[in-house]
Amino acid sequence: MKQMSSAQIRQMWLDFWKSKGHAVEPSANLVPVNDPTLLWINSGVATLKKYFDGSVIPENPRITNSQKSIRTNDIENVGKTARHHTLFEMLGNFSIGDYFRDEAIEWAFELLTSPEWFDFPKDKLYMTYYPADMDSYNRWIACGVDPSHLIPLEGNFWEIGAGPSGPDTEIFFDRGPEFDPENQGIHLLEEDLENDRYIEIWNIVLSQFNADPEVPRSEYKELPNKNIDTGAGLERFAAVIQGAKTNFETDLFMPIIREVEKLSGKTYDPDGDNMSFKVIADHIRALSFAIGDGALPGNEGRGYVLRRLLRRAVMHGRRLGVNETFLYKLVVTVGQIMESYYPEVLEKRDFIEKIVKREEETFARTIDAGSGHLDSLLADLKTAGKDTLEGKDIFKLYDTYGFPVELTEEMAEDQGFKIDHDGFKAAMKEQQDRARASVVKGGSMGMQNETLAGIVETSVFEYYNEVLDSTLSVIITDNERSEVVSEGQALLVFAKTPFYAEMGGQVADHGVIKNDKGDIVARVTDVQKAPNGQALHTVDVLASLAVGTNYTLEIDSKRRRSVEKNHTATHLLHAALHHVIGEHATQAGSLNDAEVLRFDFTHFEAVTADELRRIEEEVNQVIWQDLAVETVETDIDTAKTMGAMSLFGEKYGKNVRVVKIGDYSIELCGGTHLANTSEIGLFKIVKEEGIGSGTRRIFAVTGQQAFETYRSQEDALKEVAKAVKAPQLKDVPAKVIALTEHVRELQKEVAELKEKAAAAAAGDVFKDVQEANNLRYIASQVSVTDAGALRTFADNWKQKDYSDVLVLVAAIGDKVNVLVASKSKEAHAGNLVKVLAPIVAGRGGGKPDMAMAGGSDASKIQELLAAVAENL
Q1: β-strand 467-477 against 480-482: which pairing, if any?
Q2: I need a labelling partner for 815 at 20 to 30 A (CA). Which of 79, 98, 522, 778 fits?
Q3: pTM above 0.85, yes or no
């Protein structure tokens, strides 16, 4: 077996499959594009689903890749096990309706065992297979595998709901009896037991059925096109080839661990307690790649995953004695390890470090807040005479503040408290169950559509024609091909078309189809790409259409022009964002239709009003410069040398279109555009908002819509001017400021009057002092207009020694407001209000000295007041 670095393993994998006619697919962005079933790209096949379900036919049906992936279902296991990671690389080879079982197995065996390639010892390899899949068994035998190395397992069948499915055969490497302390041998594989001896390095999925949840597996129908989907973890390959005890002792992780040693002054012991080193090394890899791909820490979705990973790594740094910000210092090491295949980490190093460091600094403040929360919890326990911190509270500290259980336990035990470990585990399991239930593993695939996949007729899109004559090649109605259609809705393919099929954020063209007499025979309502790339026109049929007949295709030119204004403006907006807020603001989605443009981009905070103004001004300045919009067709390498920017998540073929707007913007884009920026006329941002952690969205309008937006704003301003009696529009701000100041003064006077009235009323309320359980208390219903007045009463009460406890109740509208204040350690305001509030159908809580509650049953106010004495 050859000794190889991880980079050499990856390259040998790709080179082998390239030698077998596979196209090398570059690793896709970790943030899925147009796939709501996935939080992250989590496998090599995740980005290829469009090929497997038949919605797109690839140029080459043989594909190989090394895909960076993230899985976060069981973050807690990272560092505990030898092979659990958040970020990993999945090596894969795929066949889309081309070769199948025989070649997949034969080539896998060749790659693993041939001296030209990995040169694994044949006697160290074991394979599992689905018991009913004797074809795979026989193919392994034909390759020379000993029958004793072939293990049938019922679990070797891959399916994720409706869609492609089939048996799979897994390949294991035997690391020897030193990793089998109980000497169980092959029994470990036969019983599918977790172990460190037999390491799964490769899974070959034989996708040959359309799974149908409504029928037994034995009745699944065969796919029209059978597929091969494989996955081999690079980290596991590296561990086996490099003879590492765990994946963490490979060259993918050890340079990071060595840096952590320097920062902490601690030494990594492969046989000792090294969990913190492993967690940090794993998590900084995931953070570096995810942030580099546009995901940012936040409070939900992907952002929450990143925030949790970072906080977990920081806390493990503290366990190693690293108390200052340090994670950001490891980004460069991650980039250096992966540079040969992922240069983008080092290219974006400054930005990634900035985000990680900022998040570390924020977490340092959060730790202080968490410590305060824990102190408060322990104080409440002490007051209540309890000695155990409940599991739900430990989990909140862990989940919200990032406190590991060990830290909570240490701080609690220092004050003499016990820890409810079972309750914490139960709360943790509930969260994990919810997380797993919300994940679609691998993402479901659609059923293959044989009719659409079977369209092979050529169809050419004519960029610069808005009206042309063309022959009707294909008619599809009710998912079947027809020669004639005379009514209803149909899908049509023409030999050539002026209609743009929806793609790259640009909506499809609308228009009409006319016969040779000039009569409209169909209205085009949508255009999408067929699996083989043809423009598939969705039409409402008005008169008979026949295959082989010539028709005139005419797009709605006015609508196209409006769309082009927005699309060209989107390119200008993208460039302006880079100039104003930074190069990290890359496109994360867009929509260009006739009415509005929508642009999504990565950014870690809201765009300020000043920044939006500068962006808007810059775009308009470019519009008014009359810059030519040029489109060049060239190969992808030439486009890159020109400096063309590729867009988020897009896949590009060998030949691409480059859209160049003067010297201001240059992007790869397949859409249609104006000839000159001046045709846009005017650009106006109408809204900026957050749509997810680390992703912002801008809505803008152009041309007539921009003018109408300004006009409506002017009309609104005129109404304000009229209301504030401003003689001219320019006088409105000063008038509004003066009125606002006057209102503020009036509000201050009202507040002072209310306070005086409350003080006067308080004099009467505070006279009625009662006593119970050696505590003086006042319990009274008061008449106030808002809950704030109750606090004013309490503030006045605190100034003098009226009583030990104050209970005030007020019916405000249809609600009942309750306030409890206490000056005595013998009476906890928060606990007392929790007892009293249910009487008026309410709930509440608070601190030992002040608490409030809300209820809805005003008829029980006197009953609540009477209950005060018995609960003191």
Answers
A1: antiparallel
A2: 778
A3: no
